[in-house]
């Protein structure tokens, strides 16, 4: 394997020295529909600090520590912990990730630039590292964003809560497993978990149990 290109933020040394390095979250390659003529191939990512970096995969900018400027397509603030320990979701040219208000925000992208004012969920997320958004949909329609909330932070000791929102309008909450906890409560929360979606069901992992949510009769 030969290194052909790379990106490092201009303050990469300071970030590494303070244990705030970029490598705590995986990058996401965006589809060409998100790009522009000048920047048709994009990758985005973040780390333990707030910036989200949008980078041209054909010219990643490398390291530019002397000028104080990152040679990339766009940089803007995401969550208070960036994308630390979480992975963003991307659907229909919209990025879903924790934002600066500790809510899940939807950022649309047009012509290789994100709208940096997100549509937000009504709920905040106190999870250590934030929450990972997962999308279910019927083709390109009927999209739902799912996320798991836990109020335990570093050491969860309460049930995890599965939440669902209209992915085209995150202000609309569709479901929360604590609305009828006697029926829907999941097990005791565990850090860094994500909902798993398959065949019309949502699977929620907990410390000692696995909950399965869906409509209709389960056999």
Low-pLDDT ranges: none
Structural class: mainly beta
User: What form results from the Cα inertia axes?
Assistant: globular
The biggest beta sheet is recorded as: 5 strands, antiparallel
Count of strand segments: 16
Please indicate the percent range of residues in DSSP E strands (runs of 2 or more).
35-45%
Order of helices and strands: HEEEEEEEEEEEEEHEEE
Give the overall pLDDT as a whole number: 88
Kindly provide the radius of gyration, computed on alpha-carbon positions and rounded to a whole number of angstroms. 18 Å
Helix content: under 10%
Structure description:
- With 219 residues, this protein is mostly beta strands.
- The protein is built from two helices and 16 strands.
- The chain has helices at 12-17, 181-184; strands at residues 28-29, 42-46, 51-56, 74-77, 89-91, 94-98, 104-110, 113-114, 119-120, 134-138, 141-149, 161-166, 169-176, 196-198, 201-205, 210-214.
- The strands form four sheets. Strands 5, 6, 7, 8 and 9 form a five-stranded antiparallel sheet that branches. A four-stranded antiparallel sheet has the order 1-2-3-4, with no helix packed on it.
- Strand 14 and strand 15 (201-205) form a beta hairpin.
- The radius of gyration is 18 Å and the shape is globular.
- The N and C termini lie far apart (49 Å).
- The relative contact order is 0.11.
- The model has no long low-confidence stretch (mean pLDDT 88).
């Amino acid at each position: 394997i030969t290194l052909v290109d790379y990106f490092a933020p201009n303050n990469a040394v300071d970030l590494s020295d303070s244990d705030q390095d970029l490598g705590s979250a995986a990058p996401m390659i965006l589809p060409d529909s998100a790009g522009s003529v000048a920047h048709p191939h994009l990758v985005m990512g973040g780390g333990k600090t707030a910036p989200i970096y949008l980078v041209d995969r054909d010219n990643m900018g490398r390291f530019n520590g002397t000028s104080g400027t990152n040679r990339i397509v766009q940089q803007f603030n995401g969550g208070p912990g960036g994308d630390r320990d979480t992975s963003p979701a991307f659907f229909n040219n919209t990025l879903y990730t924790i934002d600066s208000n500790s809510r899940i925000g939807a950022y649309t992208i047009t012509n290789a630039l994100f709208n940096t004012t997100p549509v937000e969920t009504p709920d905040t997320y106190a999870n250590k590292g934030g929450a990972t958004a997962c999308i279910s949909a019927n083709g390109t329609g009927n999209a739902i964003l799912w996320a798991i909330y836990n109020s335990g932070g570093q050491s969860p000791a309460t049930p995890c809560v599965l939440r669902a929102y209209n992915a085209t309008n995150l202000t609309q909450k569709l479901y929360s497993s604590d609305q009828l906890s006697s029926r829907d409560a999941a097990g005791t929360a565990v850090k860094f978990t994500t909902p798993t979606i398959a065949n019309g069901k949502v699977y929620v992992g907990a410390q000692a149990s696995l909950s399965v949510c869906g409509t209709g009769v389960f056999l």
